[in-house]
Amino acid sequence: MSKPNPVATIAMDSLQDGGADKLGTTMDQQNMDRLGKTQELRRNFKFLSVLGFTAVLMCTWEAILFTASYILPNGGLAGMVWMVSEFSPRSWQRFLSYISGWLCVLGWQVNIASGCYLVALQLQGIIALNDASYVAKPWHGTLMVIANATVCVVFNTFFAKKLPLVEGLMLVIHVFGFFAILIPLWVLSPIQPANEVFGQFTDVYGWPSQGLACLVGIVGPMYSLLGPDSAVHMSEEIRDASRVLPLAMMWTLIINGTTGFIMVVTFAFCIPDQLISGVPNYGFTYIDVFYNSTGSTAAASVMTALITLLCFCSTISAAATSSRQMFAFARDRGLPFSSFLCRVRPGWEIPFNAVCVSFVITCLLSLINLGSAVAFNAIVSLTVGAILSSYIISISCVALRKIRKDRPLPHARWSLGKAGLPMNIIAVLFLLVVYVFTFFPIVNHPTLSYMNWSSPMYAGTVTFAVVYFFVYGRKVYSGPVVLVKEEH
Predict the structure, then answer these.
(1) Which of 50, 59, 88, 383 would be 248's cystine partner, CB 3.0–4.6 Å?
(2) Which residue has the higher pLDDT, 394 or 298?
(3) Residue 37 has pLDDT above 90, yes or no
(4) Any idea what the Cα angle at residue 247 is, between residues 245 and 248, rounded to 5°?
């Protein structure tokens, strides 16, 4: 394949008219041509906005705080479809890419609901902190989820052209908010002994061993590291995507990994013994820690509101990712009603129908909370399990392609080189372990109310996808790889 003309690329980048914004750089156009796709969405994301998008969506240091309530009892203080379609064995390309697409749809759709639900719970925690007489009702949470989802839709439709600017502002809040939370904890919070922080393991729920308890509690940390691939599903809206996208993903992991590690160590030093095995007063352990550290309801409320705001910003990004992923998979005829889901309305240049369907799915999922809060909590596990499944399939296909060496990998502007294969193998082995424990209940010998209902939800979706594939999907879905042009 001929190399792009750098002069033409620079000239294209300098243009400001709508056509240039939509087509992107010369390299973007060549990549879309290679994939056999027509550019339908506007490329208005650049490096900083993509970095803000992925960093805030992952919200690593924030997630460490609001998932601590799930982690502490078990352990204590101590674009996937395309990748699968192109890199898997030829005989399995269509089916594996199809299943991977469904798992991505499942994971990212429930991710919106789980994000909105976490925002709702934190809002209820703020109310309880300021009003001791407040009693949270299931319908309160459901209405808050629907309200949060509504605002997400507004940002992803009417304000879609301003979304890159919003993501950039979110990145600023994400970084400075980290210090706004960290410094008060360092200065004001009572400190736990280091031997307890690094040597005290807890098994509140009666697992056979502390090691098993720690593995059961791994879902929380994994949730905080989920989503570096989110921008992949936005690649059709990123200028110079083949360079900007991997660069932003790597910097996201550096920024979020560093801040997340600092926050988890800091937070572990600030948690009193009674909160490790006890039930928090305000729904989340970190709210109790904020209040104990500052001794002020107002200060704890402001700090909690900052975490809630960033969690909500993450949900806006998740809604964008989910709708684009659904749009892309529907464009390949992988979903029921694909022609409706992949429609882009003239003048909007966004997958409006997919955004609206994502909103409806979130609202329907929120109704589960009316019957059982425990069942709705399983959505967090379902998010992790479904997305990790797509990771395992896609990374395994890439690793197998490298091992077999039957076909060379396509040219890439960003590569891990010789370190790629060992990292692929280690990643798959680790993800397989995490995947298994994603579906474990948080307590040993659970009653019906403490069962992890993510496993039947997951199994039901996969079963439906397989049945749909053999009944109808295989007739219309060929897999994206059939459209990809070979490099010469």
Answers:
(1) 50
(2) 298
(3) no
(4) 65
Three-state secondary-structure class, residue 82: helix
Per-residue pLDDT at 285: 86
Residue with tokens 């240049």: 349
**325 pLDDT tier (thresholds 50, 70, 90):** confident
The amino acid at residue 392 is: I
Whether 143 and 121 have beta carbons less than 8 Å apart is answered as no
Question: In the predicted model, what is the mean pLDDT of residues 323-351?
Answer: 84
Q: What is the rounded distance in angstroms from the CA atom of residue 347 to the CA atom of residue 395? A: 37
Q: Between 457 and 414, name the one with better pLDDT.
A: 457
CB 257 within 8 A of CB 226: no
Q: In a 3-state reduction of DSSP, which class is residue 201? A: strand
SS3 annotation, 155-178 = HHHCCHHHHHHHHHHHHHHHHHHH
Spatial CA neighbour of 62 closest among 9, 128, 119, 1: 119
What are the structural domain ranges in the chain? Answer: 41-410+417-478
| All residues at 6 or more sequence positions from 467 whose CB lies less than 8 Å from its CB, including other chains | none
What six digits make up the tokens of 469?
Answer: 């594939």
Q: What are phi and psi of 210, to 5 degrees?
A: -70, -30
Assigned token pair, 141: 């949470």
Please say whether the beta carbons of 293 and 215 come within 8 A.
Answer: no
How far apart CA 32 and CA 43 sit, in angstroms, is 12
Quick check: 73 pLDDT over 70? no
pLDDT(90) > 80 = no
Q: Single out the residue of 31, 49, 54 nearest to residue 412, CA to CA.
A: 31
Q: With 0-12 CB in 10 A as exposed, 13-18 as middle and 19+ as buried, what is 439?
A: buried
Q: How far apart are CA 308 and CA 335, in angstroms?
A: 33
Sequence-distant (6+) residues with CB within 8 A of 429 are none
Closest Cα partner for 18 from 346, 279, 466? 346
Residue 290 C-alpha from the chain's centroid: 26
Chain position carrying tokens 């949900």: 315
Q: What are phi and psi of 111, to 5 degrees?
A: -65, -35
Closest CA to 249 of 235, 237, 263, 268: 235
* pLDDT exceeds 80 at position 10: no
Fold exhibited by the domain 41-410+417-478: Amino acid/polyamine transporter I (1.20.1740)
Roughly what angle, to the nearest 10 degrees, separates helices 163-188 and 241-270?
Answer: 20
Statement: residue 479 has pLDDT above 80: no
Distance between first and last Cα of the chain? 5
Query: In whole angstroms, what is the distance from residue 301 CA to residue 368 CA?
Result: 28
Among 180, 141, 106, 137, smallest CA distance to 329 is for 106
Q: Whose structure tokens read 């910097």?
A: 251
